[in-house]
Amino acid sequence: MERFKLVVQYDGTEFSGFQIQPEKRTIQGELERVLAFLVGEKVRIYASGRTDTGVSAFAQVCHFDTEKEIDAKKLEVSLNGLLPDDVAVLSVEKVSMDFDSRFTAKKKTYQFRFYVSRYELPLLERSAVRINDYADVKMMNEACKFLIGTYDFSSFVAAKSGKTDFVRTIYDAKIVEIGDGIFAFEVTGNGFLYNMVRIIFGTLLKVAYGKMKPEEMKAVIEAKDRKKAGKTMPAKGLLMKSVVYDD
Hints:
By secondary structure, the protein is α+β, with helices and mostly antiparallel strands. It has helices spanning 27-39, 72-82, 137-144, 196-208, 216-223, and strands at 2-10, 46-47, 56-66, 87-95, 107-116, 129-131, 149-152, 167-179, 182-189, 238-244. A hairpin with an 8-residue loop joins strand 2 and strand 3 (56-66). Helix 1 packs across helix 2.
């Protein structure tokens, strides 16, 4: 048995998320379909995280096992020749059987992208959320400081679904400018809850518009109450940026 690591980039706009679902187009489904054809056996893809419907990834990390002997570079080329245009495999490499794309990940970084404009801009609308009014980025960054640390983040989870562990560690959180009038809330942590990044950004917008003081972010966290946080922002702004496995 051999294990291979894939780094995958995709535009999630036309997908029903990463995880395979009957009668729906998913990232996992596309990868497993093409891999089965190329490898000659059914394979199961495991990912560092299951992105939701409409969420994209710059560098999603996956792995799969196979009994077949595979040339990693040839597989990379063949995958990109057969996958649809909105999915690309950036690299394929053979790894130790100890590697697990999900459970050995140390840090994950997500971006929530937004732009400030009076009008919808066609080249940005697929991958960012339009903010109508001026957003006070300085105040948003002040609020981000209160997110850093290890806390119960249950104020920022959409549905608890029987979960009992809402403690996560945030290593870094900030607003960065990635283009002229284009920004991103960039956050790095050891893991994230369902819709956590999208809800945190919705809460940061309350700060941006003066509806909440930056230091009140601490009280929202301590409340452990979804009603105290902001709205859940659209999936199209969310991008999985990177996954780190070793320091």
